[in-house]
Design goal:
Length: 137
């Protein structure tokens, strides 16, 4: 798992009203992001009102959301590109991939402490995480 400098807005604009509050990636400030092993993007935002939320883009394979340590490339290698395949086989593979793999987006509101813990767990080198998490009130 690694954090990257990708802007989440480039990947997907998201908007949701949850418990009467509007969470909108276009109107909020992106604070941090994390590209998981499965190439899903998780981004932390803060609204103008000061609320925090995660905007998530996850892969779903055969109806099951993949975990952060799973990759559909490994779980379904038959869907991967083969440089030696014919055009007809490539078309069949892409059709199968469209049926089996989809991207699911969601927004999760977070309390301040949850946001801080998320940043520490995803964007701080592992050797410092324990010390920082222990120092939180």
């Amino acid at each position: 798992m690694r954090s990257v400098g990708l802007g989440f807005r480039e990947a997907q604009s998201m908007r949701a009203k949850i418990n009467g509050k509007l969470y909108d990636t276009e109107q909020a400030h992106q604070l941090a992001n994390w590209l998981t092993y499965s190439n899903t993007i998780h981004a932390l935002y803060q609204t103008k009102a000061g609320d925090f939320f995660l905007a998530l883009k996850d892969y779903v394979l055969d109806g099951r959301r993949l975990g952060t340590l799973e990759s559909f490339h490994e779980l379904a290698p038959e869907l991967q590109e083969d440089q030696t395949e014919t055009a007809a086989n490539r078309l069949r593979r892409w059709e199968a991939r469209e049926l089996r793999v989809r991207i699911e987006t969601r927004i999760i509101p977070m309390a301040v402490r949850e946001a801080v813990e998320w940043v520490i767990r995803t964007n701080v080198p592992e050797c410092f995480r324990g010390v920082l998490l222990e120092s939180l009130p």
